[in-house]
């Protein structure tokens, strides 16, 4: 895996749009079909990790990803709190589905960033 | 029927993953194991768990294991000396040549991304061969050095080249042994 293989990188490049569409599909349809934020996020994480495995890029800023993940965690706590204590679900029942989709999207991005950070930290800093 | 085949394959793959000698193959077997397990989850009507299993266990964990294998490989080296019990301190302090050789091998291991782990024992070579805990056994008898390594270990060929290049004058002999413990004749 030290050299770049053109076959592997071409095939991975062809697969990227499918991985993105599949991950986003699983996230967006998580509330009424199998799947959800966690599974879709894991599929999206494969995108970044596969990119690292194939071409050994190190232009991914772990620090920035960490900050974005922390912000997402804050939003992830804030949104259900507002939704539940503001009784929005009871007052406007048409927002229930939108709320579920929004939460799934948040969880999906957080899981994708988290798994990517785990693998990248492991690959970069646990060097012996 | 499909269920029985899948379950039997799971047991077979688990045994293969445990019994194989090569760690990389064990990782691949575990990946196939997880994929079959996710099929089985789907078969039992848990598609949610099946997706999670397929993505996490079969994809990410396999990638993590492969990265870990690339980073961390332990190489056990055993140094044995027939006169270990009778030596006095002068010999140990003076034994610079031994130290230098060991350091050389250690550097070589690190350059190959292996984790060298050197053990010095007074034990007999036959006992060491029986336990089969070490990848490389270096045995010293006076001025003669004998290096025992497994036949399947391609690392030992490179080590032999290094020793020939660096220490032409040293009395080294490299002996390879087969899987069942018999020594392979040198060509």
What is the average of the pLDDT values of chain B? Answer: 74
When the domains of chain A are counted, the total is 1
Separation of the first and last Cα atoms of chain A? 18 Å
Helix content of chain B: 55-70%
How many helices of chain B? The count is 7
Structural class label of chain B? alpha/beta
Q: Beta-strand level of the residues of chain A, as a percent range?
A: under 5%
For the termini of chain B, the CA-CA separation is 54 Å
Helix content of chain A: over 70%
| Elements of chain A, N to C (H/E) | HHHHH
Largest sheet of chain B: 6 strands, mixed
Largest sheet of chain A: none
Q: Which stretches of chain A of 5+ consecutive residues score pLDDT under 50? A: none
The coarse silhouette of chain B is elongated
Query: In terms of per-residue confidence, which ranges of chain B show pLDDT below 50 for 5 or more consecutive residues?
Result: 88-94
Strand content of chain B: 15-25%
For the residues shown, what is the average pLDDT of chain A? 84
Order of helices and strands of chain B: HHHEHHEHEEHEE
Strand tally of chain B, please?
Answer: 6
Task: Specify the oligomeric state.
Answer: heterodimer
Keywords:
heterodimer; A: 128 residues; mainly alpha; 78% helix; elongated; B: 187 residues; alpha/beta; 2 domains; six-stranded mixed beta sheet; 7 helices; 56% helix; 20% strand
Summarize this entry quickly.
The complex is a heterodimer of chains A (128) and B (187). With 128 residues, chain A is mostly helical. Chain A contains five helices and no strands.
Explain the overall architecture.
The complex is a heterodimer of chains A (128) and B (187). In chain A, 22% of the residues are buried. The mean pLDDT of chain A is 84. Chain A contains five helices and no strands. Chain A is elongated. Chain A has helices spanning 6-28, 37-55, 62-85, 88-91, 96-125. Chain A has one domain. With 187 residues, chain B is α/β, with parallel strands linked by helices. Chain B has two domains: 2-70; 73-184, no CATH class. In chain B, 56% of the residues lie in helices and 20% in strands. Chains A and B meet through α2 and α5 of A and α3 of B.
